[in-house]
Design brief:
With about 675 residues, the chain is of the alpha/beta class. It is about 40% helix and about 15% strand. The protein is built from 21 helices and 19 strands. Strands 5, 6, 7, 14, 15, 16, 17, 18 and 19 form a nine-stranded mixed sheet that branches. A six-stranded parallel sheet has the order 10-11-9-8-12-13, sandwiched between helices. Strands 1-2 form a two-stranded parallel sheet.
Length: about 675
């Protein structure tokens, strides 16, 4: 029997998986859906996937759901349980609108719904936030059950999340995390792409990306900020004024969609290619792109005009990026900065598309002839790299954006290796820019969300953060003055750039001292009823949270870049120092099996407990990574950890002794 939904929002949350099934949902063609995943399960494994899905439901519902779930598995390669998708609008409500016994749990519900907001999520009906496969949950039963548990939780319980599945509430204590999240933490020898495909199709593991599966994504604002800093510092590196200069890249998805906006803020001409018409027009309608051009001849004329007039403009080319690189070479259009931010951590399932084949034909090929699709992608990567090489020979500065472009291009046989045959000929943006300029000094993507949902609260927190940074800049050492000034400029212009998508959130790069002082000032403002609760977090892409040899730890040169001790230490240390929730993932950004990354969330409520926790946890969360980078002999990190020891007498870190190169 099917129930007619008349329950309130709070009633639907506390109900969890309903006793009476809701009506089946129509497949909405206007929504940006995930591509069909390739068929990878045997007949017996398909039965296992169905058993796994049906265990969420009472036996009397199995006969109704079995054919439906079987059809989803065959049609989409996954069981999403579309029928269970809630009827209410998905967005981050003010914290007061959530049911529950714990304010911390309500804050987590707010963040989960923000990750699934249609304005935020890449494939909201498939519970995917960004990156093509970065999931919050595997199916809608998991979502419903998790929200129910959070509505019942007290501050003496912890919810354990097992790759999207809520294992249950366990007794703990008020200083323990309210939620512990793991995603994709498989046995190391089973981290090949097909291993993930199989486990995900079975419903036993998921790719949490970075902030998707840890409930800390704030829309494209986070990557806008990081990309802005990267582009600005890229131009500084080549000693070029952004005005009238060209930045060429590709991808307009959940993360990559921020690139045109960042280019505008940096002050250059940005050309960003994308093959998906739907997401291209979404980004244009959201104001993240100034113009869309579908013909490469028109693109050439438009770019030449922009160069001549030194415009600050962002242009989306609706087509394949290879066409842009090759045509700009033949037309002798000089590209100053070049990169790529397609989802090459997921190259065979929609993360990167072959040249010369339409978007629709590619999706057909991906599902029905995956081996031929794979061959076409590899051929495209070889052409892509060859075109880039022609431009770099003319002076273009190209950097890998940590999306596994160089890694997959090398595996495809492209000419991207250095003469030693070990390293890539082009640096990662972390290796060359963000690592030595930011991460080694402890500067990384600190972010916060105003739980009240009020824009005026966000404006007040912007001002508080700006005041703190300006005061710190007065006495900051010369080594970090550039970082301080970049972030003061950013926060002053944040409102003007209209960066909020979804929750009332903000990001800036801050070191441990800055994060603690800003958080302390927020907590004081909450205590004085000037603002509502604030949820702190960060991108996993940070000083300490992620071990990724081709991205976050690509500027670690002591041979330890393939170890993951730092990320594990980070999440364990955060959990007993006061984080409200913690997460640790396999995969994220550069691919399943290529990285271990962790994050946290922390609710500030104006209490002394919050003040104690923020000082303990934020100090560790940053300095753990600086300590490791210092031990790798990174000059900036040695400076930063010595400075940290001067401010905290209980901190004693081993400093490396440097060896004379002539002696070696």
């Amino acid at each position: 029997m099917q129930a007619i939904q008349t329950k309130s929002f709070k009633e639907q949350i506390t109900e969890g998986i309903p006793n009476e099934l809701p009506s089946p949902k129509p497949y909405e063609i206007d929504i940006n859906h995930a591509p069909k995943r390739k068929e990878i399960l045997s007949e017996e494994e398909k039965k296992l996937a169905l058993r796994n899905a049906l265990r969420y439901f009472e036996p009397n519902q199995h006969a109704t759901l079995l054919p439906e779930f079987k059809e989803e598995l065959e049609k989409y390669g996954r069981i999403y349980m579309y029928r269970l998708r809630p009827d209410y609008r998905m967005y981050a409500r003010p914290i007061s609108e959530y049911p529950g016994k714990s304010e911390q749990a309500k804050a987590i519900m707010l963040m989960i719904q923000n990750n699934l907001d249609y304005a935020v999520a890449q494939h909201p009906h498939e519970l995917i936030t960004y990156g093509g496969n970065g999931a919050v949950f595997q199916n809608w039963a998991q979502y419903r059950l998790t929200m129910k548990y959070l509505s019942e939780m007290t501050d003496e319980q912890t919810l354990v999340m097992y790759s999207g599945h809520p294992m249950g509430l366990f007794p703990s204590h008020k200083d323990a995390p309210r939620v512990v999240v793991t995603n994709g933490m498989v046995i190391p020898n089973y981290s090949k792409p097909d291993d993930w495909e199989k486990m995900n199709a079975l419903g036993v593991s998921q790719y949490g990306q970075m902030t998707a599966g840890s409930y800390m994504y704030i829309g494209p604002q986070g990557i806008v900020h990081g990309t802005t800093i990267t582009v600005l510092n890229g131009f500084r590196k080549i000693k070029k004024n952004p005005e009238g200069s060209i930045f060429v890249t590709s991808g307009l998805g959940g993360m990559s969609g921020a690139q045109p906006k960042a280019g505008n803020i940096a002050g250059c001409i940005t050309i960003c290619a994308e093959v998906n018409p739907k997401i291209t027009h979404i980004r244009h309608s959201q104001g993240w792109i100034n113009e869309v051009i579908e013909n490469v001849d028109d693109l050439v004329i438009r770019v030449q005009k922009a160069q001549a007039e030194k415009e600050v403009v962002s242009i989306a080319y609706l087509g394949n990026i290879v066409d842009v690189w090759e045509r700009f070479d033949s037309e002798n259009i000089h590209i100053d900065l070049g990169s790529d931010q397609t989802s090459l951590h997921n190259p065979w399932a929609g993360g990167y598309y072959p040249v010369g084949i339409s978007f629709e034909e590619s999706n057909e090929l991906m599902a029905n002839n995956p081996e031929l699709f794979k061959t076409k992608v590899k051929e495209t990567l070889v052409r892509h790299a060859a075109a880039i090489n022609k431009h770099t020979a003319k002076g273009t500065y190209f950097f890998d954006y940590g999306n596994a472009f160089l890694l997959e291009a090398s595996r495809a046989g492209a000419d991207v290796m250095a003469e030693d045959g070990i390293r890539f000929k082009y640096p990662s943006y972390v290796q060359d820019i963000m690592g030595p300029m930011c991460f080694d000094y402890g500067f990384g993507p600190f972010r916060w969300v105003c739980a009240s949902g009020k824009p005026e609260d966000l404006a007040k927190t912007d001002q508080i953060a700006c005041d703190v940074l300006e005061e710190m800049a007065k006495t900051a050492p010369i080594e970090i003055q550039q970082q301080m000034q970049d972030n003061i400029k950013w926060i002053k212009e944040a409102q003007k750039n209209k960066l909020v998508v979804g929750s009332q959130a903000r990001i800036l790069y801050a070191d441990a001292e800055g994060r603690m002082k800003i958080a302390e000032a927020f907590n004081k403002a909450i205590a004085e009823n000037e603002i509502g609760y604030v949820i702190l977090g960060r991108d996993h892409h940070d000083v300490s949270g992620t071990d990724s040899p081709y991205r976050e730890t690509s500027n670690i040169y002591d041979g330890s870049s393939f170890t993951a001790d730092m990320a594990i230490h980070n999440v364990i240390g955060d959990s007993f120092r006061g984080a409200t929730w913690v997460s640790i993932h396999n995969g994220g950004g550069v691919g399943w099996g290529e990285v271990i990354n962790g994050g946290f969330g922390m609710v500030l409520d104006g209490t002394e407990d919050s003040d104690r926790r923020l000082k303990s946890m934020l100090f560790w969360d940053v300095n753990n990574g600086i300590a490791r980078r210092n031990w790798a002999r990174n000059e900036g990190a040695i400076f930063a950890i010595k400075r940290a020891m001067e401010t905290q007498p209980l901190l004693k870190v081993t400093i490396p002794n440097l060896v004379d190169d002539d002696l070696l």
